[in-house]
Structures are given as structure tokens and as C-alpha cells.
Amino acid sequence: MVVIRADGNEHIGAGHIMRCLSIAEEIKKNDKCIVFVMAEEKFESLVKERGFETFVLHSDYSDMSSEEEMVIEYTKKIKPTALIVDSYFVTPHYLEKLRKITKLIYIDDRMEFAYDVDMIINYNVFAREDSYVKLYGNCDRKKPQLLLGTSYAPLRKQFLNSRITIKENVSDILVLSGATDKQHVEKGLMEWLIQEKNMLEKYRFHFVAGKLNSDYENLKKLAVKDNNLCIHYDVNDMKSLMCLCDVAVSAAGSTLYELCACGIPAITYSFADNQMPAEHEFANRKIMLSVGDIRDNIRYLEQIMQCLEHLINDYKMRSDMSAKAFELVDGKGAGRIAEYIFKKQKFI
Predict the structure, then answer these.
(1) For residue 343, is pLDDT > 80?
(2) Relative to the CA of 280, which of 28, 33, 74, 232 has its CA 20 to 30 Å away?
(3) pLDDT tens per residue, range 194-225
(4) Strand order in the sheet with 103-107
(5) CA angle at residue 189 from 185 to 191, to 5 degrees?
(6) Fold of 2-155+331-344
(7) Bridge partner list, 265
(8) At 204, is the secondary structure helix, strand, or coil?
(9) Between vectors from CA 323 to CA 322 and to CA 327, what angle results, nearest 5°?
(10) Tens digits of per-residue pLDDT, 84-105?
(11) What residue segments make up the domains of the chain, in order of their start?
């Protein structure tokens, strides 16, 4: 049995749950029972729909020290062969206690401290081994096994063999903002398009709204003003929708790696500290265009539209960006993680 400790809600989005589901599906192929342990019930139905057991703690997802004893007691009771933890709120003490009970794997984005675990998975474009060498070089804790880089990006199975063909003329544009869109980017862009009108005369815009998007009803009302405004709610087949489009605008979350697997030229932005390293790296390597951190940028909508026009009118740029993106991510990351754990290193 493998336990996965992950959360998702209107504050932190769905990324942690979604990537853990991809890993879980590959682990399941090795005849392992998997249980998702979550603080809240927000994504319990989704996890169960995907065929996995759940255990809800009814705790504060942002205060993992408060759940420590419950998780330790549960882990001792079911005796898993490994525990995968995916949370930004994990503490050194939390990990130290759990590692005494079972093998511990941590999915990392931030490199905040020397995690007391057996394995670290960091699939981000900015992940570097030397960063962890420095992190563990300042303490007496042994550096764990490291699975680093985009070849380990745990995407859904649908993103295998999903590369689009770059067309000379753009017709469809995809707009993504994560599960919650706390910055109301989609609403702002839709209002901008309606006011300016010029772009809507030439292109269809596909807006993706997740279950936790508080602007969904407003988006529906705005969309009736023009036939080229399309809203897609709680999308299950994201690959098909992505492959319908020629260009994308997306927040700098895990969706960027799905766009890479499809080879879709994209404009990205960040609205949280943990998104900024990926946004910077994609921009610096000219894989995507970026407008940076939008939290204190009152001109970000204008800048997104400027980048969009630039990208639409430059076929070579779109072709180059598509090739670079596709080279990064092939959609096999979750399988590689499971293979490494079960076959190469016999970790479990």
C-alpha cells in the first residue's frame, strides 16, 4: 500500500491533487493499493472517481503540525510501504516523525530546507541538483535520491503523443488561469476583448473555468456578447481542447508542462511566489513569453494582449517555441517516477 498526502481547494488550486493522481495511476500498475489522505473533502469525489481510496482528516491544510498525530496514527495502523507527501506546509518535525514509520517521498517545488525524506521529486524546469547539494551541504542530513527535471513531469495519460501542428494562421486561442483564478484574469481579459472588439473579429477565444472559479457565472454572462467567446467548464479532456488551439495564455502552474507536451506556444504570468521560478525559466530559455508577476502590475492585461498579437503575427517564433517546449516534456513523467521507484532502485 502507498499513501499519498495531498490537498486541493480554492486557495491552493488543484495542481497538487492532479499531479498526485497521475503518479497514483502509474503506481497502481504495480499492484499497489493507494490511499489519498486529505485535509478537506473538496476533491474527495474526484479522487474516488479515479478509483482510489480516501481518508479525510478534517484538519487545517495550512497547519500540518495540527494533523501530525492523526497521520502518524493512521500510518502506523495501515503500515504502507511508502508515503508520498505533496504540500507547501510540511514541517521538518512532521517529516522526521513520519520517516521513522515508513519510506518517505516528497514532491518539491521550493527547496525550502533539507527535507528528512528518502526521495525528492522536483519535475520543474528550474530544478537543479546543485541546489540540493547546497541545501544538504549545510547540515548532517544525507541527501536523498533525487528525481529532477521535466522528464519527470507527472502529466495525465492523455498527454502522451499530443503534439500539435503549428499553423501559419492562428484561429483559436486558449486562456487558462488555474483552478481558482484568484486574480480574476479571465474575467479581465474577456472584458478587454469585448471592449476592444478587434481581436474577437479574427479569433475564437476558449476560456477554461474550473469548479472553484468564483467568476464562472460572470464569465457566462459576458460570453453571450460574442460568438467567438467560448467557455469550457470543469474540463476532463484537456488534451483535446489544447490541441484545438494554436496559442495559449496561462498562469505559471503545472498547466505549463501540459502545454509543453502539446507543443503549444504560450504566454505565461505568475501571481504567487512559487510560480515565479518556472515563469522566469521558461521566459529566459525563450520557450514561452512572459508578462511576469501580475500582482502589482496594473498594465498586465495590456501586456498580455501585446504579447498575444506579437506571437500571432510571428509564425517562426511560434514554430521555434513549439519545438523547444515539446523537447522538454513528453508526457511519460509519471511512468518514469513509478519505474524508478519499483524497478530501477527497488525503492518500495
Answers:
(1) no
(2) 232
(3) 998 899 999 999 999 988 899 999 999 999 99
(4) 53-56, 34-38, 2-6, 82-86, 103-107, 119-122, 145-148
(5) 120
(6) Rossmann fold (3.40.50)
(7) none
(8) strand
(9) 115
(10) 999 999 999 999 999 999 999 9
(11) 2-155+331-344, 159-328
What is the phi/psi pair of residue 190, to 5°? -65, -40
Burial 48-72 (b: 16+ CB within 10 A, else e): eeeebebeebebebeebeebbeebe
Closest CA to 331 of 157, 166, 123, 164: 157
Nearest alpha carbon to residue 148 among 103, 116, 112, 109: 109
- Cα dist. 328→176, 258, 333 in Å? 20, 11, 11
57 within 8 A of 37, measured Cβ to Cβ: yes
Strands 172-176 and 34-38: unpaired
Cα separations in angstroms, 270 against 144, 188, 254, 278, 296 = 30, 15, 12, 9, 11
- DSSP reduced 3-state for 37: strand
CB 34 within 8 A of CB 52: yes
- Fill in the DSSP letter of residue 274: G
**pLDDT on residue 345:** 57
Nine-digit cell string for 321: 517555441
- Calpha distance 341→298 (Å, rounded): 46
Distance between CA 23 and CA 86 in Å, rounded?
12
Would the CATH topology of 2-155+331-344 be identical to that of 159-328? yes
| Cβ-proximal residues to 76 (8 Å cutoff; 6+ apart), any chain | 101
Name the residue type at position 232: H
Phi, psi of 175 (to 5 degrees): -125, 120
The CA angle 140-143-146, to the nearest 5 degrees, is 170
9 - beta bridge partners? 13
Residues with Cβ within 8 Å of residue 73, at least 6 apart in sequence: none
CATH class name, domain 159-328 = alpha beta
Arithmetic mean of pLDDT over the chain: 95
Residue 104 identity (one-letter amino acid): L
